[in-house]
Amino acid sequence: MTLSWLSIFRLGLVQMCLGAVVVLMTSTLNRLMVVELSMAATIPGFLVGLHYVVQLSRPKWGLVSDMQNNRTKWIVLGMVILALGANLATFSLSLFTALPLMAILLSVVAYGLIGVGVGASGTSLLALMAKHTADQRRPAAAMITWLMMIFGIAMTAGVVGQLIAPYTHERLTWVVLGLTLLTIAVTLLATWRIERGLVQIRSVDDTPTPLIPELRIVWAHDETRKFTIFVFLSMTAYFMQELILEPYAGLVFFYTPSQTTSLSGIQNGGVFVGMLCVGILASGFKIGTLRGWVQLGCLGSAAMLLLIMGMGQITLPLPLSAAVFGLGAFNGMFAVAAIGSMMALAGRGAASREGTRMGLWGAAQAIAAGFGGLVGTILVDLLQAAQFATVHAYGIVFTFEAALFVWAATLAGTSILSSSQMRTAPPLARELKNV
Q: Does residue 63 form part of some domain?
């Protein structure tokens, strides 16, 4: 027995909950630290980077769930730990004015818990899907789950943006508490007896796999090595704007906390639309190739970043929200096409532990995410320390990000599988018709 479409949608709800909580930690709290509390952007950059560093433990979580063959427990436990970290991070904001050292220490613990929660829950969830989803359903299952996560991020950012207006810390505290309790409840319902009756699709070797030798084997594969470099570069560019876009909107365009939180929702709404477009046009109407969609997404993202930079320099008859939506749409295009390429590439390799493989991929993405976010904030602070105006400091970093996306588009030409190699992958459109 394998996962049904209903079970796949249920797991998508868990992924949606993960995105809903994390987006507040990486966007709203980040903006409050930089604008309302007047901190250096490096501080929230370090904290968000810390939660990505902690996620380097993902291979271990995957291996543990492989060995115990009970992934539901780790999914739920991870969500509870994430909720605890989110509430602790929100509480620490109230201490920064009176007890800054205590607030920093508390924030470090909070973001560490957030990283542990995301790593444990997210890795176990993806491993459960990889292990118990029939081969012909995998592309569609991945698309559905990813879109649900983006929907959760966009919806949460938009709704929370309205709930915290006018902003007060007490209001934010109650909103975060309510959200985390809701996500725990949804996770419990979504995973209730979901593993009951499931059988292994592939045989599993119970011998623990050493991490370093496994990494060496993966890196020795030429296609995997090239694609890994592309993923790291493109994800670094993707996450560099994550921690500076909302402060940029607040400092340069004078957006309120409510408006910048809603702006994050607009961006992720664009990501959702971009992903959906690729899924429909590439799989349903056979328009373009995955390689072409990846390159279009990267180049379009670069163009939108340059537009956002330019809007801070000169007055344009275009709202910032429109450019941010466009950035999200092109981000979604390259992301979902890259996911499709990754699945096709993974299908060409030898079978292995599903949890450990997902953990290794998650750790690689976490490195790029943490590195990109931290570098973006450090560059902004260094440029401002060098007497660059705020608008110019942020503009230079956006331009640098655009250059990275152009570089990634160039690398995609050699790292993404060709159309003939993709033919072995099950067509997504055919599977979606069966949902």
A: yes
With H, G, I as helix, E, B as strand and everything else as coil, classify residue 352.
coil
Rounded Cα gap, residues 51 and 30, in angstroms: 13
State the CATH number of the domain containing residue 133. 1.20.1250.20
410 lies in which domain range?
Answer: 5-195+220-428
Domains identified in the chain, total number = 1
- Structural contact between residues 131 and 200, judged by C-beta atoms closer than 8 angstroms: yes
Within-domain flag for 70: yes
User: What is the per-residue pLDDT across 380-395, written as a single tens digit (0 to 9) for each?
Assistant: 999 999 999 999 999 9
Helical segments of 70-137, H only: 71-93, 100-132
Question: Does 433 reside within a domain?
Answer: no
Report the distance separating Cα 121 and Cα 391, nearest Å.
39
CB neighbour list of residue 234: distance below 8 Å, 6 or more residues apart: 298, 334, 338, 404, 405, 408, 412
Give the tokens for residue 53: 């560093």
pTM of the full structure: 0.72
SS3 label, residue 200: coil
Q: Which residues contact 83 (CB under 8 A, 6 or more apart)?
A: 21, 117, 180, 181, 183, 184
